[in-house]
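Narrative summary of target 7.
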Amino acid sequence: MERIYYAGAAENLWGPYTIGFLQWDGEQWVDQAEPAFIANEEWEHKSVYEPNLVYHDGRWKMWYVAGSNYEDYLVHGYAESQDGKTGWTKHQVFAQPEMKMFDFCVRQRGEAFDAIFARVWVGAGAPPSETGLWWCRASKPSGKLSDWGTPIQIMTAEDQGWHSGPWKPSLPFESQAGTRTSIFFDGAYRTDDPGPFPFAFTVGCLEIDLPAELSSTTIADLP
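Modeled conformation, tokenized:
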């Protein structure tokens, strides 16, 4: 079963958002008539988006963002479902708003799981040092952030001209047990357009060898 999960807003570009998916029927991608996942907790502020899912141990496991950039409020949530569209478990907080986690992309490698996630900055002023991309690893795709060990920062938010503050990372490995990966990510830069959205979006790639395991001698404490 092949699916592409996405977030959309029927009435307003800025949300609130719900999550749906396209499913491959053998000939084409077919959209679903109704959202597969909607906000139902007060802490979600009526909006859920940026879904990342894996199918593991007979269940669809989803990490997602709730809240809004406009409110400078981003909280990361987690839920599970047997069919990926109904019967979701109670939505739980995966990462607190203070962390500003925007994506949590999980992939299996060998007998364990890697995750690349972004920490973003949508407030005023220069982004703090922890803004950027991070890597962590766990024995299973857990819905508890503490099970993923202490993450390592692999990219900062330093302004490169064509991007600053990377987000939406993807994580393919050259082999199922290898360490080499190309992490594709979104970026943006400000333009001279005086309109309501003076930004241009870009896509970048970071080639990196990720350790087989987290090492207490090389990791830094998470800010």
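The domain at 3-209 is CATH 2.115.10.20 (Tachylectin-2; Chain A).
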